[in-house]
Amino acid sequence: MTAALLAAEGLAFRYGADRPLLFEAIGLTVRGGQVLSILGPNGVGKTTLLQCLTGAHRPTAGAVHCGGAVLGSLPVREVARRMAVVHQMHESSFAYSVEAVVLLGRAARIGLFGRPGAGDRAAAAAAMQRVGIAHLAQRPLIELSGGERQLALIARALAQEAPLLVLDEPTSHLDLANQGRVLKLLRGLMADGQGIVMTSHFPEHALMLGGDALLLGRGAAPVAGPVAAVVTEANLAAAYQAPVALLRAGAAIACAPRL
Amino acid sequence: MKGFGTAWVQGRATAPVLTLAVLATALAAGLVGRFEVAPWDVFRIALSPVLPFQPDWDPITEAVILQVRLPRVLAALLAGGALALSGACYQGIFRNPLVSPFILGVSSGAGFGAALAILLTTSAVMIQASAFTFGLVAVVASILLARLYRTAPTLILILSGVIVGSVFAALLALLKYAADPDDKLPVIEFWLMGSLSGVGYDDMLGLAVCVVPGATLLLLMRWRLNVLSMGAQQARALGVDVFRLRLVMLALATLLAASAVSVCGVVGWIGLVAPHMARLLVGADHQRMLPVAFALGGCLLTVVDAIARSLVQAEIPLGIVTALVGAPLFALLLRRGAREWA
To answer: How do residues A75-93 score in pLDDT, each as one tens digit?
Structure first.
């Protein structure tokens, strides 16, 4: 069996020696075509865990392996070829076109003095085509709606041609239609063999994508496993320390707080 | 994003259009001056060292063009280009279109260095060398100071620049306070206001030694500036060693600004206005924008210098003209560009 795209063991993190551990003993594995959803309440460390997994933070304990190699031992350029990250916030003071932003996904394959060539432009065009924003290529990114902007940043990540895609809350701040668009796109990418790790505030989105889930709880031990076993009313209530309803209507699923 | 420029400034025509604009500006600036020379003569004399024109002009005309105006125009092109390119890079690195190349204290350091040399010597070379050195010292101090804190790098860098800049401004004030008000003080004041008067080939060559390699390297790396301008977190995830690249680009941009300031004094606005004009012409992408900013900056300073030496009997300091021309221009650009940096 080939090495996992991403594997972590005994992962723990704290922001300073005098601060409490944000999480500990986290283990996870992601392979091609699989998805792992990281769930949990605000402030429980989802984004921090993601930053440990992408190398932006060094874990206090434990190790992260990326495509068989220890993450910390890889140069950033090599990491960028193995995993592409879609960050939560994008702010730019410059009015770059969507195409120019998507082309930045090629940075790990272009030398210091290099500029994108025909091959890079073809990869960017294919990525924009894949997420369905080819018609927006020449528009300034900052003029797009939140949903289109998220798709453009996913296109930039796809242009990296990395086998693993890491997304930090990809469906937050999106309307229902755009949530559906992004989830459908992610499901399609999984079918193409892409490995996906994402954090989310929507347990139902994890259920819709299937795969594995890791539920971080406030003061409770993390729950990991197949998403259907992790995302239950009882587990959610324990993690969020609040009553939660899990509703199903045919293929549609929704989670709601019980008031 | 397509800028406001007409189609022929964009696409493949950019390079020839820029070259023509620079040549036309240089020729026009060569015409300007107390001593009148016909345009065709300016053209022939300026190119006579490299092209076989029959020298049917008188030697005084030749001296005016070759020894006075040509080095000055070339120095203005280089210094203006250096300031504009430096400003564009600083803006990209700091992800802020309102940043000037002087934000890390290069101008305060250079002002102090020049004043120090003016007090201690009368050598023009020493004044330039001291301005250049202290300009670099100020920026290195800002970067080292920022390194002490380790967090939120660009914001802390800007604050460090403010701290170091104000220290050098205070030291400069101290030197001015100590300077002889009849002799040295006016020289310091005039230096600070900026001027290219009396610039010869040696100054121009000194400038070229820094500007040509520095600008070449920055222009070669210009696509990478797009990546850096995404911010540290995203640039890193895209596969760029942010810390190293930022340091290299900052060093080169600072070298350009320091060399320009050491030759022509503290000339503001060019480093702020030229990148904006470039952005409006060809859009925000640094691939297109950086060469345009470089050429525009050169043209701007050449025009400003021509105005400075011809408007009235005595020369007007460059800093005054750039501010009087630059401020309204910037206000105009702000109006047209406001939408872009919302």
So the answer is: 999 999 999 999 987 777 7
Contact B240 A100 (CB under 8 A): no
Q: How many domains does chain B have?
A: 1
pLDDT on residue B119: 93
- Please report which residue ranges of chain A form alpha helices under DSSP H: 46-54, 76-82, 98-103, 118-131, 146-159, 176-191, 203-209, 227-230, 233-240
Q: Quickly list H helices, B265-285.
A: 270-282
Q: Is B52 exposed, middle or buried (0-12, 13-18, 19+ CB in 10 A)?
A: exposed
Which pLDDT band holds residue B4 (cuts at 50, 70, 90)? very low
Evaluate whether residue B2 is within a structural domain.
no
**Is residue B154 less than 8 Å (CB to CB) from chain A?**
no
Termini Cα distance of chain B:
14
pLDDT at res. B12: 66
Please state, in angstroms and rounded to a whole number, the distance separating the CA atoms of residues B315 and B189: 14
Residues in B closer than 8 angstroms to A115, CB to CB, are 222-223, 287
DSSP class of residue A249? E
Lowest mean pLDDT of B33-37, B57-61, B141-145, B224-228, name the range.
B33-37
Residue from the list A93, A95, A105 with its beta carbon closest to the beta carbon of B1: A95
Kindly report the nearest CA distance between residue A26 and chain B, in angstroms.
22
For the entire predicted model, the pTM comes to 0.91
Domains of chain A: 6-257 (3.40.50.300)
Give me the residue from B226, B233, B284 closest to A87, CB to CB.
Answer: B233
Counting residues of chain B whose pLDDT is more than 70, the rounded percentage is 93
d(CA A67, CA A230): 26
